[in-house]
């Protein structure tokens, strides 16, 4: 990675393309999960790479390049979301989070088909924005609640509650979709 960073710092055009080709798909996936719209995701992706290329001189350790790009990408997406509309997060209060581990039984089996991952990703797209963002940052991008709280300007307990509520909502969406598929199969098999 250090060699690639050094080549970019020397304005090697091929190095710019190599970096883009190496990171555009994973960063686009992050953008899409954060923005939930392909057009918005492409805009954020473009802005991310502009910032990366403008600020590459500040990166002293090439081994940090993947994490550095990811951080720029997420911060760019959050900034864009903030511009579009102020993100609203529910504070943790006396109302309990309606989450039960029993509700996960039979919903997601990690060792089933790959179609489960597509089903989960589709369900994530249906989450309300505040849940989708926290869920994505925590469950997919592996940020801690403390890091998420700092990025979003909230407290860690709010991040935790948004994650749990998002997870509960995600399970409800998946269950509802499975029931819908079963009822369609029943209609076609009895007809």
CA distance, first residue to last residue: 60 Å
Percentage of β-strand residues: under 5%
- Helices and strands, in order, run as HHHHHHHH
Quick check: average pLDDT? 82
Structural classification: mainly alpha
Stretches with pLDDT under 50, minimum 5 residues: 92-113
Structural domain count? 2
Q: What form results from the Cα inertia axes?
A: elongated
Main sheet: strands, sense, barrel: none
What is the helical fraction, as a range of percent? over 70%
Total of helices:
8
Q: CATH superfamily assignment of the largest domain? A: Winged helix-like DNA-binding domain superfamily/Winged helix DNA-binding domain
Looking at the structure, the CATH topology of the largest domain is: Arc Repressor Mutant, subunit A
The value of Rg in angstroms is: 20 Å
CATH architecture of the largest domain: Orthogonal Bundle
